[in-house]
């Protein structure tokens, strides 16, 4: 049976909104990690079959197939193509899936997968306003077909996160404890140098900006809810951020021909969707199906990366699948480190790969909630 191997992975530090990466053109931000990946792996860039980058809100500097542009501005060979994909928050995780599927099918041997997002320059959901001159202001609200199926009810990630907190009985205090833990773990990882090997500095910028040393139960308790009478506050949601990340996926033939030393193999990849109104519950059935398909149990997984879009999402997921939170997001998550949407999937995978190696673990599972109620699941096996 063919295999898809992960050769190496790299990311920029994650910049906070208006921070160190805010003024960098998305193509240059993406190009930075692409050049670093080629340098780190030692692979001839001309041997790469394709470049697949995740990116959302592909307007302005993120438009025009930023994957192709990023490769070119990095000074890499003209003949290598690139494609940009959008599966919302899971875009770069899906890029890995497409890359691995190309390798597993035998139609490619070396594929770069990653993502880029400058949310400071191009605000989240900016692409949804482009059609206003024609009266279309969202992807669904004005659609007669959508209204016929789902009615006129509000569809938003904020409402979904509140609905999850209510359904699973997750208190604000419980979420605040989880969020505080995210900052504590992220700061410990930074201070211990655990991110150093996976980060390619951008100039003098080499450390993630998101984690807050002043975060405390008292400071979180004083914040106003995002919705009237709600439980969620800004402290319980992922941070708006800027970053890029990328990894190299290789076939068995490529590993042999190029003399590569892969770090992991893709043990499983899948994607599943759930109710789009609930939107953020997809990781629950997606994880269950991934484990059923592989014959693994939740206890067989050494580490989990579950994107912290909101604290309620991760806590409900853990309660449903029976995961030990001590093995979830052990170096902090998006609440502390940020969520540069298009780049988050491979940012998480880069961190997961490094932490599996540090701990000597075998299996790592990554899952993300995504717009439309979708969820990608990847299980890596460390080599």
From TrEMBL:
Classification of source organism: Bacteria, Bacillati, Actinomycetota, Actinomycetes, Cryptosporangiales
Any Pfam family the entry gives: Thiolase_N
Enzyme category, top tier: transferase
InterPro entries registered for this protein in UniProt: Thiolase, Thiolase-like, Thiolase_C, Thiolase_CS, Thiolase_N
GO molecular-function terms, A-Z: acetyl-CoA C-acetyltransferase activity
Similarity comment: Belongs to the thiolase-like superfamily. Thiolase family.
Gene3D superfamilies: 3.40.47.10
NCBIfam families tied to this protein: AcCoA-C-Actrans, PRK07801.1
EC nos: 2.3.1.9
Active-site residue numbers: 89 (acyl-thioester intermediate), 339 (proton acceptor), 369 (proton acceptor)
CDD domains linked: thiolase
Domain Thiolase N-terminal: 5-253
Protein name: Acetyl-CoA C-acetyltransferase
Residue span(s) of domain Thiolase C-terminal: 261-382
Keywords for this protein: Acyltransferase, Transferase
């Amino acid at each position: 049976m063919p295999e898809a191997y992960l050769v190496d992975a790299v990311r920029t530090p994650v910049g906070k909104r208006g921070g160190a990466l805010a003024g960098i053109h998305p193509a240059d931000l993406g190009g930075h990690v692409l050049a670093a990946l080629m340098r780190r792996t030692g692979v001839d860039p001309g041997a790469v079959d394709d470049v697949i980058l995740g990116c959302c809100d592909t307007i302005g500097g993120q438009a025009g197939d930023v994957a192709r542009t990023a490769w070119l501005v990095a000074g890499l060979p003209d003949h290598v193509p690139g494609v940009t994909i959008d599966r919302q928050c899971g875009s770069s995780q899906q890029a890995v899936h497409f890359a691995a599927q190309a390798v597993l099918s035998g139609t490619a041997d070396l594929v770069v997968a990653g993502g880029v997002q400058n949310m400071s320059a191009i605000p989240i959901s900016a692409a949804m306003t482009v059609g206003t001159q024609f009266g279309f202001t969202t992807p669904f609200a004005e659609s007669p077909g959508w209204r016929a199926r789902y009615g006129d009810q509000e569809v938003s990630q904020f409402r979904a996160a509140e609905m999850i907190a209510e359904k699973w009985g997750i208190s604000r205090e419980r979420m605040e404890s989880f969020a505080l833990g995210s900052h504590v773990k992220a700061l410990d990882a930074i201070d211990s140098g655990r991110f150093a090997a996976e980060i390619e500095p951008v100039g003098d910028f080499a450390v993630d900006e998101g984690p807050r040393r002043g975060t405390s139960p008292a400071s979180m308790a004083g914040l106003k809810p995002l919705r009237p009478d709600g439980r969620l506050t800004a402290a319980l949601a992922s941070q708006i951020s800027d970053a890029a990340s990328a990894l190299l996926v290789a076939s068995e033939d490529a590993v042999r021909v190029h003399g590569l030393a892969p770090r992991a193999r893709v043990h499983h990849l899948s994607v599943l969707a759930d109710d789009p109104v609930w939107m953020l519950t997809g990781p629950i059935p997606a994880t269950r199906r991934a484990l059923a398909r592989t014959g693994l149990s939740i206890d067989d997984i050494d580490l989990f990366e579950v994107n912290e879009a909101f604290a309620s999402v991760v806590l409900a997921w853990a309660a449903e699948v029976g995961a030990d939170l001590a093995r979830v997001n052990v170096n902090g998550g998006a609440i502390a480190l940020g969520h540069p949407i298009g780049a988050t999937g491979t940012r998480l995978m880069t961190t997961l790969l490094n932490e599996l190696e540090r701990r000597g673990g075998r299996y790592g599972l990554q899952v993300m909630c995504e717009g439309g109620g979708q969820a990608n699941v990847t299980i890596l096996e460390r080599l």
